[in-house]
Write a structure and sequence with these properties.
Number of helices: 10
Strand order of the largest sheet: 1-2
Structural class: mainly alpha
Largest sheet: 2 strands, antiparallel
Low-confidence stretches: 1-35, 226-232
Bound molecules: zinc ion
CATH architecture of one domain: Up-down Bundle
Strand content: under 5%
Shape: globular
Radius of gyration: 18 Å
Order of helices and strands: HHHHEEHHHHHH
Mean pLDDT: 83
CATH topology of one domain: Butyryl-CoA Dehydrogenase, subunit A, domain 3
Length: 232
């Protein structure tokens, strides 16, 4: 069964691994919208994940743990990881390479400001808005209390859902527009693992609507996740 490597070492790449010199201007393109193919669905990449434990067991609410605390601690952890990945690829995501915040197919994400106005903006600007919004929320003691015994606010789940939607879109944009750069960096096993973890956690705790995950459903299925969750 060739082609499917076990990591830890992301340097165990085969001959198909891209090198930095392979990132030519024509490959970067504008949003890669002209590319119909989805390289992240190719079997040799889909199977590259960090060996891990049972994701469903990992994401389920552990016995004796408060559900809001579990959601809050995972929200913080996912934000830190995804922000880090986004930063690692930020030099490739500019207003000229990504004039719109796009995802697979014709998906274009618009930012809704505090006045409810929808703003079409570049992907890096959307990412700035999203990460700043999440950062502000996570550091708001009224929303994510850190003191023992503090109560979570009413509607906490809706804020968590919004954070997960923004994090999901961030990964969708990376897969859609920056997968070649992800391959060059050797980041794809980590990306697949993080995406799987986020998706399984979201499904298990009802954080994302099927309508929002639909543009990435082909990858979710290819990664073999999302089964049996709806029945559990
Ligand atoms: Zn971009």
């Amino acid at each position: 069964m060739g082609g499917c490597h076990s990591y830890p070492s992301a340097s165990e790449a085969d001959d198909t691994t891209l090198r930095p010199s392979d990132i030519s201007n024509n490959k970067l393109g504008i949003n890669n919208n002209n590319l119909d193919e989805r390289p992240y669905l190719q079997p040799q990449y889909v199977c590259q994940k960090i060996p891990t434990t049972d994701m469903h067991a990992l994401t389920a609410l552990p016995p004796g743990v408060d559900q809001s605390e579990w959601l809050a601690s995972n929200t913080v952890a996912f934000f830190k990881h995804i922000n880090l990945f986004s930063s690692a690829l930020s030099e490739f995501c500019t207003p000229s390479t990504c004039p719109t915040a796009c995802g697979p197919g014709n998906t274009v994400y618009t930012w809704t400001d505090e006045q409810g106005r929808k703003l079409k903006c570049s992907a890096p600007l959307y990412s700035d808005y999203a990460m700043s919004y999440i950062q502000d929320l996570l550091t708001d003691e009224e929303v994510f209390p850190t003191k023992a015994g503090s109560a979570f606010p009413n509607g906490f789940i809706f804020l968590v859902q919004k954070v997960f939607l923004l994090l999901f879109r961030t990964l969708a944009h990376i897969y859609w527009s920056h997968y070649q750069e992800t391959l060059v960096l050797g980041l794809q096993p980590h990306l697949n693992t993080l995406f799987t973890h986020l998706t399984v956690f979201s499904l298990q705790h009802g954080l994302l609507d099927p309508e929002d995950t639909q543009p990435m459903q082909d990858l979710i299925s290819a990664l073999g996740q999302g089964q049996n969750i709806g029945n559990s």
